């Protein structure tokens, strides 16, 4: 295939599963990270690729990353920040950080990747949102709003860039076994399992499977869509 895929937030969780899966599909994988250099290095080694450091919320950092790696055929934006708590208790710095990473980071990376894709008249961008971006979640209002913005961006860019041969889609996972669940109690997790018709918490590989499909030739006529691997918790 000899195509290059950049996965931001690729050091663990969904991003790591995407990196390993896309490498199996023949992509040259670049694992993006910010704070988890050792973990990113291990994932890159498993995927036969490289790791690169960038703070996606910082446009200068993103530009330096792209200057170093050059053109990418596939961009998968997995880097994200969670925030739990009552909306009334959210501080200015907390909500700005979540938006800076979850939507600002996506915008920064898309702006860096798209010119090369337009030049090649091809490319794919896959944005990781959340079911809470579709239906909202109590005590996660800011996170939900940021992920809803990701969905809106994907739909708009799909219309704008379709004539340039660029496919842009969104994956909105349900409850997935990643570090983002660590603040939740076992009681809460058990309640989420019971609320999920398939009766389990999802695995990162469940999400990576959808990403791999969207990156494949089988999805050549799919753009502007939101696919939600969530075990039926949202239908």
Provide an overview of this structure.
The chain has 235 residues and is an alpha/beta fold. It is built from 8 helices and 7 strands, in the order E-H-E-H-E-H-E-H-E-H-H-E-H-H-E. It has helices at residues 13-24, 37-47, 59-69, 92-120, 131-135, 141-161, 186-195, 204-214, and strands at 4-8, 28-33, 50-53, 74-77, 123-128, 166-171, 226-227. It is globular.
Summary, kept brief:
The chain is of the alpha/beta class. The protein has 8 helices and 7 strands. The longest helix is centred in the middle third of the chain and has 29 residues, at 92-120.
Reading the helices and strands in chain order gives EHEHEHEHEHHEHHE
Q: Radius of gyration from the CA trace?
A: 17 Å
Shape: globular
State the strand order across the main sheet: 3-2-1-4-5-6-7
Look at the helices and sheets and give the structural class.
alpha/beta
**CATH architecture level-2 label:** 3-Layer(aba) Sandwich
Q: Number of helical segments?
A: 8
What is the number of independent domains?
1
Q: Provide the CATH superfamily.
A: NAD(P)-binding Rossmann-like Domain
Strand content: 5-15%
End-to-end separation in angstroms reads 35 Å
The biggest sheet, with number of strands, parallel, antiparallel or mixed sense and barrel status, is: 7 strands, parallel
Q: Which regions are unreliable across 5 or more consecutive residues at pLDDT < 50?
A: none
């Amino acid at each position: 295939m000899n195509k290059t895929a950049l996965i931001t937030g690729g050091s663990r969780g969904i991003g790591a599963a995407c990196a390993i899966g896309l490498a199996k599909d023949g992509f040259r994988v670049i694992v993006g990270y910010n704070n988890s250099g050792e973990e990113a290095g291990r994932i890159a080694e498993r995927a036969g690729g490289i790791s690169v450091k960038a703070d996606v919320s910082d446009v200068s950092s993103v530009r330096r990353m792209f200057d170093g790696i050059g053109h990418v055929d596939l961009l998968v934006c997995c880097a994200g920040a969670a925030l739990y708590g009552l909306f009334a208790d959210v501080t200015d710095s907390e909500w700005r950080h979540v938006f800076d990473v979850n939507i600002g980071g996506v915008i920064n990376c898309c702006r860096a990747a798209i010119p090369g894709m337009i030049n090649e008249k091809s490319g794919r961008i896959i944005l990781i949102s959340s079911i809470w971006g579709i239906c909202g979640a109590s005590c996660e209002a800011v996170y939900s709003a940021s992920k809803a913005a990701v969905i809106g961006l994907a739909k708009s860019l799909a219309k704008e860039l379709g004539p340039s041969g660029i496919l842009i889609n969104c994956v909105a996972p349900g409850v997935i076994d990643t570090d983002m669940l660590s603040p939740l109690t076992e009681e809460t997790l058990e309640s989420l399992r019971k609320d999920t018709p398939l009766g389990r918490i999802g695995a990162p590989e469940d999400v990576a499977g959808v990403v791999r499909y969207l990156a494949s030739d089988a999805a050549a006529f799919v753009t502007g869509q939101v696919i939600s691997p969530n075990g039926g918790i949202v239908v």
